[in-house]
Protein backbone atom coordinates (compact mmCIF):
# COMPACT_ATOMS: atom_id res chain seq x y z
CA UNK A 1 0.00 0.00 0.00
CA UNK A 2 1.59 3.27 -1.08
CA UNK A 3 1.79 5.90 1.63
CA UNK A 4 2.62 9.57 1.38
CA UNK A 5 5.02 10.69 4.06
CA UNK A 6 5.86 14.21 2.90
CA UNK A 7 4.05 17.08 4.62
CA UNK A 8 1.62 18.86 2.31
CA UNK A 9 -0.39 22.01 2.61
CA UNK A 10 -3.54 21.02 4.49
CA UNK A 11 -6.55 20.76 2.20
CA UNK A 12 -9.72 22.32 3.62
CA UNK A 13 -13.40 21.73 2.95
CA UNK A 14 -16.14 23.73 4.73
CA UNK A 15 -13.52 25.00 7.17
CA UNK A 16 -12.40 21.49 8.21
CA UNK A 17 -9.53 19.27 7.01
CA UNK A 18 -10.64 17.57 3.81
CA UNK A 19 -9.57 14.24 5.27
CA UNK A 20 -12.42 14.51 7.81
CA UNK A 21 -15.01 13.97 5.10
CA UNK A 22 -13.22 10.93 3.69
CA UNK A 23 -13.14 9.47 7.22
CA UNK A 24 -16.80 10.49 7.69
CA UNK A 25 -17.93 8.46 4.67
CA UNK A 26 -15.55 5.58 5.39
CA UNK A 27 -16.96 5.28 8.93
CA UNK A 28 -20.54 5.79 7.71
CA UNK A 29 -20.23 2.80 5.41
CA UNK A 30 -18.36 0.72 7.99
CA UNK A 31 -21.12 1.37 10.55
CA UNK A 32 -23.66 0.64 7.80
CA UNK A 33 -22.14 -2.80 7.44
CA UNK A 34 -21.80 -3.38 11.20
CA UNK A 35 -25.33 -2.33 12.19
CA UNK A 36 -26.90 -3.82 9.07
CA UNK A 37 -25.43 -7.20 9.99
CA UNK A 38 -26.27 -6.79 13.70
CA UNK A 39 -29.92 -6.09 12.87
CA UNK A 40 -30.16 -9.51 11.23
CA UNK A 41 -27.85 -11.52 13.46
CA UNK A 42 -30.13 -12.59 16.34
CA UNK A 43 -33.08 -13.45 14.10
CA UNK A 44 -30.79 -15.31 11.70
CA UNK A 45 -29.39 -17.45 14.50
CA UNK A 46 -32.86 -18.21 15.92
CA UNK A 47 -34.47 -18.93 12.56
CA UNK A 48 -31.61 -20.60 10.67
CA UNK A 49 -28.42 -21.51 12.56
CA UNK A 50 -30.09 -22.91 15.72
CA UNK A 51 -33.58 -23.47 14.31
CA UNK A 52 -33.60 -27.19 15.13
CA UNK A 53 -32.67 -26.73 18.80
CA UNK A 54 -35.18 -26.57 21.64
CA UNK A 55 -32.83 -24.13 23.41
CA UNK A 56 -32.23 -21.99 20.29
CA UNK A 57 -32.84 -18.71 22.19
CA UNK A 58 -30.27 -19.76 24.80
CA UNK A 59 -27.67 -20.66 22.15
CA UNK A 60 -28.36 -17.40 20.30
CA UNK A 61 -27.95 -15.34 23.48
CA UNK A 62 -24.66 -17.08 24.30
CA UNK A 63 -23.15 -16.59 20.83
CA UNK A 64 -24.41 -13.00 20.52
CA UNK A 65 -22.90 -12.19 23.93
CA UNK A 66 -19.53 -13.76 23.05
CA UNK A 67 -19.50 -11.99 19.68
CA UNK A 68 -20.23 -8.57 21.22
CA UNK A 69 -17.68 -9.01 24.00
CA UNK A 70 -14.91 -10.10 21.61
CA UNK A 71 -15.76 -7.33 19.11
CA UNK A 72 -15.16 -4.63 21.72
CA UNK A 73 -12.25 -6.36 23.46
CA UNK A 74 -10.46 -6.64 20.11
CA UNK A 75 -10.22 -2.84 19.86
CA UNK A 76 -7.84 -2.72 22.83
CA UNK A 77 -5.45 -5.14 21.10
CA UNK A 78 -5.83 -3.52 17.68
CA UNK A 79 -5.22 -0.06 19.12
CA UNK A 80 -1.99 -1.15 20.79
CA UNK A 81 -0.69 -2.81 17.60
CA UNK A 82 -1.48 0.33 15.61
CA UNK A 83 0.31 2.59 18.10
CA UNK A 84 3.46 0.46 18.23
CA UNK A 85 3.72 -1.14 14.76
CA UNK A 86 1.29 -0.48 11.92
CA UNK A 87 0.06 3.08 12.26
CA UNK A 88 -3.54 4.10 11.68
CA UNK A 89 -3.67 3.85 7.88
CA UNK A 90 -2.44 0.27 7.62
CA UNK A 91 -4.56 -0.78 10.62
CA UNK A 92 -7.75 0.68 9.13
CA UNK A 93 -7.02 -0.93 5.78
CA UNK A 94 -6.27 -4.34 7.30
CA UNK A 95 -9.39 -4.12 9.46
CA UNK A 96 -11.53 -3.14 6.50
CA UNK A 97 -10.33 -6.11 4.43
CA UNK A 98 -11.00 -8.57 7.27
CA UNK A 99 -14.48 -7.14 7.91
CA UNK A 100 -15.41 -7.08 4.21
CA UNK A 101 -14.46 -10.75 3.93
CA UNK A 102 -16.46 -11.50 7.08
CA UNK A 103 -19.64 -9.89 5.77
CA UNK A 104 -19.41 -11.64 2.41
CA UNK A 105 -18.69 -15.02 4.04
CA UNK A 106 -21.72 -14.42 6.27
CA UNK A 107 -23.83 -14.26 3.11
CA UNK A 108 -23.09 -18.00 2.66
CA UNK A 109 -25.82 -19.87 4.55
CA UNK A 110 -23.72 -22.50 6.30
CA UNK A 111 -23.18 -23.22 10.00
CA UNK A 112 -19.39 -23.61 9.78
CA UNK A 113 -18.78 -20.50 7.65
CA UNK A 114 -21.12 -18.59 9.99
CA UNK A 115 -18.64 -18.73 12.89
CA UNK A 116 -15.68 -18.00 10.58
CA UNK A 117 -17.52 -14.93 9.25
CA UNK A 118 -18.17 -13.54 12.73
CA UNK A 119 -14.51 -14.17 13.60
CA UNK A 120 -13.29 -12.21 10.56
CA UNK A 121 -15.52 -9.29 11.62
CA UNK A 122 -14.20 -9.44 15.20
CA UNK A 123 -10.55 -9.45 14.07
CA UNK A 124 -11.19 -6.67 11.55
CA UNK A 125 -13.11 -4.49 13.97
CA UNK A 126 -10.13 -4.59 16.36
CA UNK A 127 -7.96 -2.84 13.77
CA UNK A 128 -10.58 -0.57 12.19
CA UNK A 129 -12.72 0.83 14.99
CA UNK A 130 -10.20 2.34 17.45
CA UNK A 131 -8.03 3.83 14.72
CA UNK A 132 -10.51 5.70 12.57
CA UNK A 133 -11.76 7.74 15.56
CA UNK A 134 -8.17 8.49 16.60
CA UNK A 135 -7.38 9.45 13.00
CA UNK A 136 -10.06 12.18 13.12
CA UNK A 137 -8.41 13.73 16.18
CA UNK A 138 -4.98 13.66 14.51
CA UNK A 139 -6.22 15.90 11.67
CA UNK A 140 -6.51 18.85 14.06
CA UNK A 141 -3.81 20.75 15.94
CA UNK A 142 -3.94 20.69 19.75
CA UNK A 143 -6.39 23.29 21.03
CA UNK A 144 -8.09 23.74 17.64
CA UNK A 145 -11.64 24.98 18.46
CA UNK A 146 -12.96 23.21 15.35
CA UNK A 147 -11.98 19.79 16.72
CA UNK A 148 -15.21 19.27 18.71
CA UNK A 149 -17.42 20.18 15.74
CA UNK A 150 -15.28 17.88 13.57
CA UNK A 151 -16.05 14.96 15.90
CA UNK A 152 -19.74 15.95 15.87
CA UNK A 153 -19.75 15.69 12.07
CA UNK A 154 -17.90 12.36 12.25
CA UNK A 155 -20.29 10.86 14.82
CA UNK A 156 -23.24 11.94 12.71
CA UNK A 157 -21.85 9.61 10.03
CA UNK A 158 -21.88 6.75 12.54
CA UNK A 159 -25.54 7.35 13.34
CA UNK A 160 -26.59 7.81 9.72
CA UNK A 161 -25.05 4.40 8.98
CA UNK A 162 -26.71 2.92 12.08
CA UNK A 163 -30.09 4.34 11.04
CA UNK A 164 -30.17 3.48 7.33
CA UNK A 165 -28.47 0.05 7.43
CA UNK A 166 -31.11 -1.90 9.42
CA UNK A 167 -33.84 -0.45 7.18
CA UNK A 168 -32.18 -1.53 3.93
CA UNK A 169 -30.54 -4.77 5.07
CA UNK A 170 -33.70 -5.73 6.97
CA UNK A 171 -35.81 -5.09 3.87
CA UNK A 172 -33.61 -7.22 1.61
CA UNK A 173 -33.45 -10.04 4.17
CA UNK A 174 -37.26 -10.10 4.53
CA UNK A 175 -38.00 -9.70 0.82
CA UNK A 176 -35.31 -11.81 -0.86
CA UNK A 177 -33.47 -13.82 1.82
CA UNK A 178 -30.86 -13.53 4.53
CA UNK A 179 -27.83 -13.66 2.25
CA UNK A 180 -29.02 -10.56 0.36
CA UNK A 181 -29.17 -8.58 3.61
CA UNK A 182 -25.73 -9.77 4.71
CA UNK A 183 -24.39 -9.19 1.19
CA UNK A 184 -25.52 -5.56 1.26
CA UNK A 185 -23.71 -5.13 4.58
CA UNK A 186 -20.57 -6.47 2.89
CA UNK A 187 -20.96 -4.02 -0.01
CA UNK A 188 -21.25 -1.25 2.56
CA UNK A 189 -17.97 -2.24 4.21
CA UNK A 190 -16.23 -2.52 0.85
CA UNK A 191 -17.51 0.94 -0.09
CA UNK A 192 -16.07 2.37 3.12
CA UNK A 193 -12.72 0.77 2.34
CA UNK A 194 -12.72 2.23 -1.19
CA UNK A 195 -13.52 5.70 0.18
CA UNK A 196 -10.61 5.46 2.63
CA UNK A 197 -8.27 4.20 -0.09
CA UNK A 198 -9.26 7.10 -2.37
CA UNK A 199 -8.43 9.51 0.46
CA UNK A 200 -4.92 8.05 0.65
CA UNK A 201 -4.52 8.19 -3.17
CA UNK A 202 -5.67 11.84 -3.22
CA UNK A 203 -3.23 12.66 -0.39
CA UNK A 204 -5.91 14.32 1.76
CA UNK A 205 -4.35 12.98 4.95
CA UNK A 206 -0.91 14.49 4.35
CA UNK A 207 1.59 12.86 6.71
CA UNK A 208 -1.04 11.70 9.24
CA UNK A 209 -1.65 8.07 10.17
CA UNK A 210 1.72 6.69 9.06
CA UNK A 211 3.55 3.94 10.99
CA UNK A 212 5.31 5.15 14.16
CA UNK A 213 8.91 6.34 13.76
CA UNK A 214 10.26 3.60 16.06
CA UNK A 215 10.91 1.41 13.02
CA UNK A 216 9.05 -1.59 14.48
CA UNK A 217 7.19 -2.18 11.23
CA UNK A 218 10.43 -3.26 9.53
CA UNK A 219 11.92 -5.16 12.48
CA UNK A 220 11.88 -8.92 11.96
CA UNK A 221 10.29 -11.48 14.28
CA UNK A 222 10.47 -15.18 13.29
CA UNK A 223 12.10 -14.07 10.05
CA UNK A 224 9.19 -11.83 9.03
CA UNK A 225 8.91 -8.07 9.17
CA UNK A 226 6.34 -7.07 11.79
CA UNK A 227 4.40 -5.20 9.08
CA UNK A 228 3.87 -8.58 7.40
CA UNK A 229 3.63 -10.68 10.56
CA UNK A 230 0.67 -8.73 12.01
CA UNK A 231 -1.71 -9.43 9.06
CA UNK A 232 -0.59 -13.09 9.04
CA UNK A 233 -1.36 -13.42 12.76
CA UNK A 234 -4.65 -11.55 12.31
CA UNK A 235 -5.84 -14.11 9.75
CA UNK A 236 -4.40 -16.96 11.83
CA UNK A 237 -6.49 -15.81 14.82
CA UNK A 238 -9.75 -16.29 12.92
CA UNK A 239 -10.17 -20.07 13.47
CA UNK A 240 -9.26 -19.62 17.16
CA UNK A 241 -11.95 -16.96 17.58
CA UNK A 242 -14.39 -19.16 15.63
CA UNK A 243 -13.78 -21.97 18.11
CA UNK A 244 -14.48 -19.65 21.06
CA UNK A 245 -17.76 -18.54 19.47
CA UNK A 246 -18.87 -22.06 18.63
CA UNK A 247 -18.12 -23.31 22.16
CA UNK A 248 -21.24 -21.62 23.52
CA UNK A 249 -22.37 -24.46 25.79
CA UNK A 250 -21.79 -24.34 29.55
CA UNK A 251 -18.51 -25.90 30.74
CA UNK A 252 -20.02 -27.46 33.87
CA UNK A 253 -23.11 -29.35 34.94
CA UNK A 254 -26.03 -27.59 36.59
CA UNK A 255 -25.25 -26.57 40.16
CA UNK A 256 -21.46 -26.55 39.66
CA UNK A 257 -19.15 -23.51 39.63
CA UNK A 258 -19.12 -23.47 35.80
CA UNK A 259 -22.89 -23.84 35.48
CA UNK A 260 -24.04 -21.50 32.68
CA UNK A 261 -20.43 -20.42 31.96
CA UNK A 262 -18.83 -20.98 28.56
CA UNK A 263 -15.18 -20.38 27.64
CA UNK A 264 -15.68 -16.70 26.73
CA UNK A 265 -17.55 -16.06 30.00
CA UNK A 266 -14.64 -17.53 31.98
CA UNK A 267 -12.07 -15.52 29.98
CA UNK A 268 -13.86 -12.25 30.74
CA UNK A 269 -14.25 -13.12 34.41
CA UNK A 270 -10.48 -13.67 34.60
CA UNK A 271 -9.85 -10.38 32.76
CA UNK A 272 -12.22 -8.57 35.11
CA UNK A 273 -10.57 -10.06 38.18
CA UNK A 274 -7.10 -9.13 36.88
CA UNK A 275 -8.20 -5.53 36.22
CA UNK A 276 -9.63 -5.22 39.74
CA UNK A 277 -6.44 -6.59 41.31
CA UNK A 278 -4.28 -4.19 39.28
CA UNK A 279 -6.57 -1.24 40.11
CA UNK A 280 -6.30 -2.18 43.80
CA UNK A 281 -2.50 -2.12 43.50
CA UNK A 282 -2.59 1.28 41.73
CA UNK A 283 -4.88 2.73 44.40
CA UNK A 284 -2.58 1.43 47.11
CA UNK A 285 0.37 3.22 45.48
CA UNK A 286 -1.56 6.42 44.63
CA UNK A 287 -1.77 9.61 46.64
CA UNK A 288 -5.00 10.34 48.54
CA UNK A 289 -6.13 12.88 45.91
CA UNK A 290 -5.38 10.46 43.05
CA UNK A 291 -7.16 7.67 44.90
CA UNK A 292 -10.35 9.71 45.24
CA UNK A 293 -10.49 10.58 41.53
CA UNK A 294 -9.54 7.08 40.43
CA UNK A 295 -12.34 5.64 42.57
CA UNK A 296 -14.81 7.92 40.73
CA UNK A 297 -13.36 6.83 37.35
CA UNK A 298 -13.97 3.19 38.30
CA UNK A 299 -17.52 4.04 39.44
CA UNK A 300 -18.28 5.86 36.18
CA UNK A 301 -16.99 2.88 34.18
CA UNK A 302 -19.08 0.47 36.26
CA UNK A 303 -22.32 2.42 35.79
CA UNK A 304 -21.60 2.87 32.08
CA UNK A 305 -21.20 -0.91 31.82
CA UNK A 306 -24.64 -1.39 33.41
CA UNK A 307 -26.17 1.12 31.00
CA UNK A 308 -24.60 -0.48 27.90
CA UNK A 309 -25.60 -3.91 29.18
CA UNK A 310 -29.25 -2.85 29.08
CA UNK A 311 -28.86 -0.73 25.93
CA UNK A 312 -27.30 -3.52 23.86
CA UNK A 313 -30.33 -5.73 24.45
CA UNK A 314 -31.69 -3.85 21.44
CA UNK A 315 -29.87 -6.25 19.11
CA UNK A 316 -30.97 -9.39 20.93
CA UNK A 317 -33.91 -9.69 23.37
CA UNK A 318 -35.66 -6.52 22.19
CA UNK A 319 -35.39 -7.63 18.55
CA UNK A 320 -36.97 -10.98 19.49
CA UNK A 321 -39.68 -9.15 21.47
CA UNK A 322 -40.36 -6.99 18.40
CA UNK A 323 -40.62 -10.10 16.22
CA UNK A 324 -42.86 -12.05 18.60
CA UNK A 325 -44.91 -9.48 20.47
CA UNK A 326 -45.01 -6.09 18.73
CA UNK A 327 -47.62 -5.27 16.10
CA UNK A 328 -45.37 -4.18 13.22
CA UNK A 329 -47.91 -4.81 10.45
CA UNK A 330 -47.46 -2.21 7.71
CA UNK A 331 -44.72 -0.36 9.65
CA UNK A 332 -41.42 -2.27 9.53
CA UNK A 333 -39.90 -5.69 10.16
CA UNK A 334 -38.40 -6.74 13.50
CA UNK A 335 -34.84 -6.38 12.18
CA UNK A 336 -35.63 -2.85 10.96
CA UNK A 337 -36.55 -1.75 14.50
CA UNK A 338 -32.80 -1.70 15.15
CA UNK A 339 -32.75 1.61 13.25
CA UNK A 340 -34.86 3.41 15.87
CA UNK A 341 -32.04 4.13 18.33
CA UNK A 342 -29.85 5.84 15.72
CA UNK A 343 -32.89 7.71 14.37
CA UNK A 344 -33.59 9.23 17.80
CA UNK A 345 -29.88 10.01 18.34
CA UNK A 346 -29.83 11.98 15.06
CA UNK A 347 -32.99 13.87 16.07
CA UNK A 348 -31.99 14.54 19.69
CA UNK A 349 -28.20 15.05 19.62
CA UNK A 350 -28.20 18.73 18.67
CA UNK A 351 -31.15 19.80 20.90
CA UNK A 352 -29.62 18.09 23.96
CA UNK A 353 -26.19 19.58 23.18
CA UNK A 354 -27.79 23.05 22.95
CA UNK A 355 -29.61 22.38 26.22
CA UNK A 356 -26.28 21.74 28.00
CA UNK A 357 -24.85 24.94 26.51
CA UNK A 358 -27.86 26.95 27.67
CA UNK A 359 -27.65 25.44 31.16
CA UNK A 360 -23.92 26.22 31.27
CA UNK A 361 -24.60 29.89 30.57
CA UNK A 362 -27.11 29.87 33.43
CA UNK A 363 -24.52 28.01 35.58
CA UNK A 364 -27.05 25.18 35.95
CA UNK A 365 -25.31 22.49 33.89
CA UNK A 366 -25.38 19.36 36.13
CA UNK A 367 -22.07 17.71 36.92
CA UNK A 368 -21.18 14.30 35.54
CA UNK A 369 -22.58 12.13 38.41
CA UNK A 370 -26.04 13.71 38.05
CA UNK A 371 -25.98 13.18 34.27
CA UNK A 372 -25.08 9.52 34.78
CA UNK A 373 -27.83 9.10 37.36
CA UNK A 374 -30.40 10.67 35.04
CA UNK A 375 -29.18 8.53 32.14
CA UNK A 376 -29.81 5.37 34.16
CA UNK A 377 -33.24 6.69 35.21
CA UNK A 378 -34.18 7.26 31.56
CA UNK A 379 -33.01 3.71 30.75
CA UNK A 380 -35.15 2.37 33.60
CA UNK A 381 -38.24 4.30 32.45
CA UNK A 382 -37.67 3.05 28.88
CA UNK A 383 -37.83 -0.59 30.01
CA UNK A 384 -40.78 0.20 32.26
CA UNK A 385 -42.62 1.35 29.11
CA UNK A 386 -42.06 -2.09 27.58
CA UNK A 387 -42.96 -3.82 30.86
CA UNK A 388 -46.43 -2.22 30.98
CA UNK A 389 -47.03 -2.67 27.25
CA UNK A 390 -48.59 -6.10 27.88
CA UNK A 391 -51.71 -4.42 29.28
CA UNK A 392 -52.37 -3.01 25.79
CA UNK A 393 -51.86 -6.29 23.91
CA UNK A 394 -54.45 -7.21 21.28
CA UNK A 395 -56.26 -10.54 21.11
CA UNK A 396 -53.18 -12.15 19.52
CA UNK A 397 -50.76 -11.01 22.23
CA UNK A 398 -49.17 -8.20 20.20
CA UNK A 399 -48.57 -4.76 21.74
CA UNK A 400 -48.76 -1.42 19.87
CA UNK A 401 -45.62 -0.23 18.07
CA UNK A 402 -45.87 3.07 20.01
CA UNK A 403 -44.43 1.39 23.12
CA UNK A 404 -41.28 0.31 21.24
CA UNK A 405 -40.91 3.77 19.69
CA UNK A 406 -41.25 5.39 23.14
CA UNK A 407 -38.78 2.94 24.65
CA UNK A 408 -36.10 3.81 22.08
CA UNK A 409 -36.76 7.54 22.54
CA UNK A 410 -36.20 7.32 26.31
CA UNK A 411 -33.17 5.03 25.97
CA UNK A 412 -31.60 7.40 23.42
CA UNK A 413 -32.06 10.36 25.78
CA UNK A 414 -30.29 8.34 28.48
CA UNK A 415 -27.46 7.52 26.06
CA UNK A 416 -26.95 11.21 25.22
CA UNK A 417 -26.83 12.06 28.93
CA UNK A 418 -24.07 9.53 29.59
CA UNK A 419 -22.01 8.49 26.58
CA UNK A 420 -20.58 11.85 25.33
CA UNK A 421 -19.13 12.82 28.74
CA UNK A 422 -17.82 9.44 29.89
CA UNK A 423 -14.50 9.12 28.04
CA UNK A 424 -13.42 12.72 28.67
CA UNK A 425 -14.03 12.27 32.41
CA UNK A 426 -11.96 9.08 32.49
CA UNK A 427 -8.99 11.00 31.05
CA UNK A 428 -9.55 13.89 33.49
CA UNK A 429 -9.88 11.67 36.58
CA UNK A 430 -7.07 9.18 35.92
CA UNK A 431 -3.45 9.79 37.01
CA UNK A 432 -1.39 10.68 33.93
CA UNK A 433 0.81 7.59 34.24
CA UNK A 434 -2.17 5.22 33.77
CA UNK A 435 -4.46 7.21 31.43
CA UNK A 436 -3.88 4.73 28.57
CA UNK A 437 -4.68 1.78 30.87
CA UNK A 438 -7.89 3.43 32.11
CA UNK A 439 -8.97 4.22 28.54
CA UNK A 440 -8.48 0.53 27.77
CA UNK A 441 -10.65 -0.34 30.78
CA UNK A 442 -13.28 2.13 29.52
CA UNK A 443 -13.40 0.50 26.10
CA UNK A 444 -13.52 -2.94 27.74
CA UNK A 445 -16.64 -1.81 29.63
CA UNK A 446 -18.60 -2.32 26.39
CA UNK A 447 -17.17 -5.84 26.14
CA UNK A 448 -18.28 -6.59 29.71
CA UNK A 449 -21.68 -5.06 28.92
CA UNK A 450 -22.24 -7.88 26.43
CA UNK A 451 -21.69 -10.34 29.24
CA UNK A 452 -24.70 -8.67 30.90
CA UNK A 453 -26.59 -8.96 27.59
CA UNK A 454 -25.82 -12.68 27.45
CA UNK A 455 -26.94 -13.27 31.03
CA UNK A 456 -30.29 -11.49 30.48
CA UNK A 457 -30.77 -13.15 27.10
CA UNK A 458 -30.36 -16.59 28.67
CA UNK A 459 -32.83 -15.76 31.46
CA UNK A 460 -35.45 -14.64 28.92
CA UNK A 461 -34.83 -17.51 26.48
CA UNK A 462 -37.95 -19.22 25.10
CA UNK A 463 -37.55 -23.01 24.83
CA UNK A 464 -39.29 -24.08 21.64
CA UNK A 465 -38.58 -25.34 18.15
CA UNK A 466 -41.72 -23.60 16.84
CA UNK A 467 -40.44 -21.07 14.32
CA UNK A 468 -43.60 -18.99 14.69
CA UNK A 469 -43.84 -18.92 18.50
CA UNK A 470 -45.28 -15.55 19.53
CA UNK A 471 -48.22 -13.83 21.20
CA UNK A 472 -49.29 -14.79 24.69
CA UNK A 473 -46.84 -17.74 24.70
CA UNK A 474 -43.96 -15.27 25.05
CA UNK A 475 -45.47 -11.95 26.17
CA UNK A 476 -45.34 -12.39 29.94
CA UNK A 477 -41.79 -13.78 29.88
CA UNK A 478 -40.57 -10.63 28.15
CA UNK A 479 -42.65 -8.05 30.07
CA UNK A 480 -41.72 -9.60 33.44
CA UNK A 481 -38.06 -9.50 32.41
CA UNK A 482 -38.33 -5.89 31.29
CA UNK A 483 -39.89 -4.96 34.64
CA UNK A 484 -36.90 -6.44 36.48
CA UNK A 485 -34.48 -4.55 34.21
CA UNK A 486 -36.46 -1.33 34.82
CA UNK A 487 -36.24 -1.83 38.58
CA UNK A 488 -32.49 -2.46 38.52
CA UNK A 489 -31.83 0.52 36.25
CA UNK A 490 -34.07 2.87 38.24
CA UNK A 491 -32.47 1.68 41.47
CA UNK A 492 -28.97 2.27 40.07
CA UNK A 493 -29.98 5.73 38.81
CA UNK A 494 -31.41 6.75 42.18
CA UNK A 495 -28.32 5.42 43.95
CA UNK A 496 -26.02 7.49 41.73
CA UNK A 497 -28.08 10.67 42.22
CA UNK A 498 -28.22 10.21 46.00
CA UNK A 499 -24.47 9.61 46.08
CA UNK A 500 -23.70 12.51 43.70
CA UNK A 501 -22.85 15.09 46.42
CA UNK A 502 -20.21 12.69 47.78
CA UNK A 503 -18.98 11.78 44.29
CA UNK A 504 -18.66 15.51 43.48
CA UNK A 505 -16.37 15.96 46.48
CA UNK A 506 -14.21 13.05 45.40
CA UNK A 507 -13.93 14.50 41.86
CA UNK A 508 -12.38 17.71 43.16
CA UNK A 509 -12.00 20.27 40.37
CA UNK A 510 -13.22 17.92 37.60
CA UNK A 511 -16.71 18.89 36.43
What does this structure look like?
This protein has 15 helices and 4 strands. With 511 residues, it is mainly α. The strands form 2 sheets. It has a two-stranded antiparallel sheet. Strands 3-4 form a two-stranded antiparallel ribbon. A hairpin with a 2-residue loop joins β3 and β4. α1 packs parallel to α5 and α12 packs antiparallel against α15. The longest helix is centred in the last third of the chain and has 36 residues. 50% of the residues are buried.
| SS element count, helices | 15
Taking all Cα atoms into account, the compactness measure Rg is 23 Å
Helix content: over 70%
Could you tell me the number of beta strands? 4
Our estimate of the beta-strand percent is under 5%
Give the low-confidence spans. Answer: 4-9
User: Could you give a short account of the major beta sheet?
Assistant: 2 strands, antiparallel
Termini, distance in Å? 44 Å
Order of helices and strands: EEHHHHHHEEHHHHHHHHH
Structure classification = mainly alpha
Task: State the shape.
Answer: globular
Strand order of the largest sheet: 1-2
Mean pLDDT: 91
Provide a concise account of the structure shown.
The protein is an all-alpha fold and 511 residues long. It has helices spanning 18-49, 56-86, 88-106, 111-138, 147-176, 178-201, 226-246, 263-285, 288-311, 317-325, 340-361, 368-387, 401-429, 435-459, 472-507, and strands at 12-13, 16-17, 220-221, 224-225.
What tags apply to this protein structure?
511 residues; two-stranded antiparallel ribbon; mainly alpha
Amino acid sequence: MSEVSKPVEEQQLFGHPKGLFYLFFAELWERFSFYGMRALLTLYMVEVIFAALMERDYATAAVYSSYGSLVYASTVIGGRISDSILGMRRSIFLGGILMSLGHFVLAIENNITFFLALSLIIAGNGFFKPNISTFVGSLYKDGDPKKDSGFTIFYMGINIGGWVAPLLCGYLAAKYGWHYGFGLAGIGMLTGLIVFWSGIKNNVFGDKGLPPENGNIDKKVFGLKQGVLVPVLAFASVPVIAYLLSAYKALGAEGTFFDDQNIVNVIFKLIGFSILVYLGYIMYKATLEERKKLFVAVLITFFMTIFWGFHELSGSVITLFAARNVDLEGIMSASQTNSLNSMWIIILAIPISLMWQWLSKKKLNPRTPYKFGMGLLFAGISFYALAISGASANENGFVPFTYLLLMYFLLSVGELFMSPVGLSKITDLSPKRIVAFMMGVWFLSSAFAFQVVGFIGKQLAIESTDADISGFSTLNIYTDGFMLIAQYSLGAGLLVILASPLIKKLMGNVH
